[in-house]
Write a structure and sequence with these properties.
CATH architecture: Sandwich
Distance between the termini: 16 Å
Shape: globular
Number of domains: 1
């Protein structure tokens, strides 16, 4: 069964709207919604991602958050993504930039940078296992 996400980019200014849409499809998807307590540090979450199979990836958190992959030790982790509250990191196969995940992921380590407010981390991945 094919899965798809449609991305919409929109900018509105002084009576004008610039808008674009793109649909991404793949045979498989993975989804994560994880609660993070206030001040949560290095919560280990088993969430495998084969970076060669990714067609679409979105990571968002409602608080500032740090995501590290495969280790929480700064000398051993593979990748690190700093998320600003309510500003998603989005990558798709047509992106101008490279995917920030360079190495296959087994475990994600999540840190809620808010000491006062709980957070919700969400990850959506479209991937094609036949690649």
């Amino acid at each position: 069964m094919a899965h798809s996400y449609t991305m919409t980019w929109q900018a509105a200014t002084e009576g004008a709207i610039i808008e674009a849409h793109k649909t991404f499809s793949a045979d498989s998807k993975s989804r994560l919604e994880q609660a993070l307590t206030a001040g949560q540090t290095d919560l280990a979450i088993l969430f495998p991602i084969d970076v060669s199979q990714v067609k679409f990836l979105m990571i968002t958190c409602d608080q500032d958050c740090l995501i590290e992959t495969n280790s929480s030790d700064s000398g051993a982790r593979d990748d690190s993504i700093s998320l600003v509250a309510d500003r998603p990191y989005e990558w798709d196969e047509d992106s101008y930039d490279s995917l920030l995940l360079r190495t296959d992921v087994v475990t994600i380590y999540a840190t809620n940078l808010s000491e006062d407010t709980a957070a919700t981390l969400k990850i959506e991945v479209l991937h094609d296992p036949t690649v």
